[in-house]
Structures are given as C-alpha cells and as structure tokens.
Amino acid sequence: MNMKIDPIDAADVQSIAGNMRNGGYRLVVMTCTPADEGYYITYSFEKEADLRHYRIAVLEGTTIPSVGSSYGGAFVYENEIHDLYGFTFEGMSLDFGGTFIKTSIPYPFKKKEQPAPTVTVVKEEKE
Amino acid sequence: MFPYEPLENFEGTRGHLVFDPSKCTSCMMCMKRCPSQAITVQRAEKIWTLDRFRCVMCGNCVDVCKFDVLSMEREYAKSATPAERSVEIYEITYVKPERPKKETAE
Amino acid sequence: MTGRQTIIPFGPQHPVLPEPIHLDLVVEDEHVVSAIPSIGYVHRGLESLVDRREYQDFVFLAERICGICSFTHSSTFCQGIEGMMGIQVPSRATYLRTMWGEYSRIHSHLLWLGLFADSLGFESLFYQAWKIRESILDELEATTGGRVIQGVCKVGGVRRDVSNSFLSEMDDRLDEIEDEMKDLTNVFLNDYTLTKRLIGKGVLSKEDAYYLGAAGPTARGSGLELDARSTGYLAYGDIGFKPVVEKGGDGYARCAVRCRELFQSVEIIRRVITDMPDGEFFTAVKGNPDGEYFSRSEQPRGEVIHYLKGNGTKNLAQFRVRTPTLTNIPPLVSILAGCELADVPQIVLTIDPCIGCMER
User: How far is CA B104 from CA B97, B98, B99, B100, B101, in A?
Assistant: First the structure.
C-alpha cells in the first residue's frame, strides 16, 4: 500500500486535480483529519495500481477551491467535510448548503477543548 | 403442526452467555473489554450483572477471561419485549483457597 | 411536453428500498429531468466511538457498521491495523479470511438478486434466491458461529480454525449449491419479461463511470476493469484474479456482472480449499498502533477504504470509512436524468444501495 503523501498548497488544488484528470486518474477519496495545528485534507488519486496522495494543511474555517470542475463526483466528499468539520468549498458542483448530513450538534467532528470521556456513563432508564 | 422438526443449529454457534459464579475472582477484565458495556462487576459487594439486551454475543469476554468462568452455549437467546427488560444479577461464590504456610528455614 | 416541472419525493420509505434514502425527482410529464439525493437517516456516528474502545475491541464495532457486508469491514479493519503495526499474519489465516470473504460475497449477491426480483414483481424468484442463501448461511454459521455477523476476525489472525475434514465436506456441498445457482441465474438472464424491463434502461457510459467515481459492479457493468482484488491482498496474489466485466452499461449488464461473480466466487473457494496451507491461525500482538494507514479491499458492492490513525495509545486517534455506496451516488444521479418515472425503483436498486454502510 503506497503511503507516501505529498504536501501541496491549498491554492494549487484545482490545477493538480486538472493534471490528474488529463492523465487519466480517478478520484478515490478525500479524507480530513485533525492535526496539531488545524486540519489536514488528503486527496487520493489512482490509475491502474498507481496510488497517489496529496495533502493540504488548513486552519479552521478556511475556504478551499473545489475540484468539482474536474471530478463531478467530488461533491459527496466536500459536502460531508463541510457538514462534519465546518470547511467551506467554493464552486461545488452540487451544493447542499449544510443539509447533506443533518446532525443535532452542528459540526460534530471539530476539535473540542474538552475531549469526550473515555468511558461512557450508562444512564438508568426510567420506565 | 409446522415446523415438524425443531430447528437445530451447529456446535460452536454463539447462542447465549453462561456465567459460573464459583470460579470468578472479580478481576473485572470482562467489564473493561465488553464492546457494548453489558457486564458490570462490583468487587466489594461480590455481584456480577449482565444486561441481556445489550449483549451482542460477540464472545470477547469468553476469550479474555483467564479463569474459564464464561462460556457460550448453543441455544439462541430468548426474545423479550422492552417492558420485561431487567439486569440479571449473580452472586459470586468464589472462595480464595488458603495457601499452606511456608515453613521458615532454620 | 408541456415544460412544467413537478417534484416527486421518492421517499425514505419505499417497498423496494432495504434501507432509507431520499431522492427528489424533478419530473416533466413522466420523464425524469434530474434527481437530488438526501441522506442522513441512519447516521449513528460510529466513527467517534474510536476513542472510547481499545483497538482490539473495536473490531466488533467495525463489524456492525453493516449487516450485509459485515465480514469485509472487520477483515479490512484488521488488515489496516496489521499494516500499521507491521504484523505478519500466518498464511492459513489469510486463506481462511479469503474463503469467508467469498462466502460473504455469494450471500450478498443472492440477497440482492432476491430484492431485485421482488422490485420487479417476481416474488417467487425472491423466495428461491433466499432459499439458496440459507444454505450459504448454514456454512457460515457452522464455521464461524454467527449467521449474519461473523465475529471471527481479530488483530493478528482469526479466532477459530476449521479442520481439514470439514473443509473437504464444504467442497462437496458446493457442487449442489452451484447447480441450484445455475437454474436461478438462467431465469435472470434469459426470461422474456425480465429482459424487456432491463435492457436499455439506466445507461451509464464508460467515461462517466470512471470520472464520476463508480465502483464495484456499477463500474464493471460499463466496461471498466476496476476491482480492488487485483492489487493482490490476502490470498488473491497467490491465486491470481481477473475481474468480471460486461459492456452495455445498462441494468441488464449490472445484473449479469453479479450473476457471473457468483460462479467466480465458487471457483475461488474451491481453489482456496485445495491450496489451504497448514500452520498457525493467529499470532500474538504486542504494542500499540502509531502512524496512519489506508486499507483497501473489495466488498460485494465495490471498493471500500478504511483510514486509520494511531497515536501510540491503546485507543486509535481517528477512523474513517469510505464505502462504495457513497461513491456510487454521483453515477446514480447521472443515470436517473433522462429515464422514465416507472423505471426509477429498479434503477435505484441496480447500484445496490447499502445505506447503513454509507452513513455509518
């Protein structure tokens, strides 16, 4: 499994996606993970057993250009990252405006000051 | 009457969990490793409880217990409605065996 | 056409859907112009439980993301942890995991064939498909202990072994199962009414399938040779593997891909049982996971990716699953544009929606 990840700038995302599209690569997945400062968003592309990863480092609340012009199917991942982490992508091919995944707490996967307790306390159910 | 024969499942099917109170040393490993938090152990009062509605019959507690206290039987667990939901309580009857006192060497 | 558009909700509750998904169909006089999906009915937030359970116990939670494709989720998760920590799994365990994975694939395709026949109104074919599925579930229960949720993978190998005499008995029972499946797939591929309703409906071109991100039989029915088993994980590297591909891109082609994959899985199981090596079936695991890893494998519905991140403690830092149904939604939106309203239920079912997996 190729785990080599190339860091790139957030402004270059659209041109790299355009190059991959011309080279015949398909978009595999977009992953968002919390890092020490802000978050990392990783784009994975593949063509016939050649798997590549590109990673951008962004702080909370930044606006990122969307790759929807090269890959029409990216709106699924971008809407999910918007609903769970709070990033804004501009130029999505299908924009749900925050209603793709409806949760009771807005942006549930953001980093919190108080981390969740490691053992869930089981409440007594009253009949 | 249909079905004519009762259903037979297989040896090794994970049907329901069985607890043997006479061997449990209250080490609390089954409580820590249960993925659905169905088991609670109270060491001071010597009580072991199981919530059968939460148990998913995964068998992790059987693998983790070092004293052969827990085992899986092959009959499927009986169904029940939420109104009958209760926690099964067992009293631990294990008595730690006395070690023979070592004779001090002269 | 009058040019006035109506919006018809294809609701979360519908007789053909096994799990809830909502589509807003924009319709002009019975031709569908576009479709807008809306998900989130089964979102349970399983990924956030990862900081509350140890990594070895989390296998049981990863299994319960979905009921139909549960074995592949647990096997991919174990593969990810083993890759991150550098654990070498004994070859008997990899061959056993391959065998159970292929049985799981046969049971999932038979389940889909039954639901598909039911959506077309052919209920007796639904019963026949699920009757064959019962004999597969008996095999799984006898060897692993559970019919639907197997619970047999663990980090470092598998939890129980299968004796060689039992394996040869399974090989003999496969002949009878294969004959029954031949009769069943003959009806799906050659019956007059089914061919009239499936050929030419819901076409996905090869170019669209590749760049919109189709996976699994949805992509292979349009002529793409995309299959994660070609990368050679588990025992597929030793056995050698070639994906089943159909040109045509319509509902009939996707149904034919799944029918042919049933027989390919039977061949793979026979080969695995003949070549099964002897030895241990698990290794001991010490230490904690640290680093990150992308683990890929082939579910019955397509390619699934698990992203795992460890930070040196007993709990993982992050766990993310990208299931094939999530990446098949854009091709579904493009197929539905331009079809007739009466064909919408079976077209939605041809991508094999597993919504429980999609919104873990």
Answer: 21, 18, 15, 12, 9
- Which residue is associated with the tokens 């997945």? A29
Inform me whether the pLDDT recorded for C77 exceeds 60.
Answer: yes
The full set of domain ranges for chain C reads 45-323
Pairwise CA distance, residues A65 & B102, whole Å = 77
- What is the span of the domain harbouring residue A66? 1-127
Residues C182 and C175 sit within 8 Å (Cβ to Cβ): no
Q: Does ipTM come in above 0.85?
A: no
Rounded to 10 degrees, the C-alpha dihedral A35/A36/A39/A40 comes to -50
| Token code pair at residue C265 | 């899985």
Mutation pick from C53, C58, C65 vs chain B, by most beta carbons of B within 10 Å, is: C53
Q: Which residues pair with A90 in a beta bridge?
A: A65
User: pLDDT tens string for chain A (127 positions)?
Assistant: 567 777 887 778 888 888 888 888 888 888 888 877 888 888 888 888 788 888 888 888 788 888 888 888 888 888 888 888 888 888 888 778 777 777 777 777 777 666 555 555 555 443 3
Number of structural domains (chain A) is 1
User: Which among C141, C149, C151 is the nearest to B10, CB-wise?
Assistant: C141
Q: Cβ of A22 under 8 Å from any chain B Cβ?
A: no
Helix segments in chain B, DSSP class H: 29-33, 60-64
Substitution target from A20, A25, A28 for chain C, most C beta carbons within 10 A: A28
**What is the phi/psi pair of residue C26, to 5°?**
-90, 115
Total structural domains in chain B?
1
Closest A-chain CA to C315: A118
Residues C145, B59: Cα–Cα separation, whole Å: 10
Which residues neighbour A93 within 8 Å (Cβ) at sequence distance 6 or greater?
A: A66, A68, A69, A72, A74, A75
The CATH H-level (homologous superfamily) assignment of domain C45-323 is: Cytochrome-c3 Hydrogenase, chain B (1.10.645.10)
Domain, as residue range, for B62: 16-91
Report field, pTM of the whole predicted structure over 0.80: yes
Reference C137, options C109, C96, C104; nearest CA is C104
- The answer to whether A120 faces chain B, any CB pair under 8 Å, is yes
Rounded to whole angstroms, the Cα distance separating C89 from A67 reads: 39
In 3D space, the residue among C209, C270, C217, C206 whose CA is nearest the CA of residue C243 turns out to be C217
Distance (Å) from the alpha carbon of A16 to chain C's nearest alpha carbon? 15
Angle CA(B48)–CA(B49)–CA(B52) in degrees, nearest 5?
145
Distances (CA, A) of C87 to C30, C101, C194: 57, 21, 49
Token readout for B46 is: 């010597």
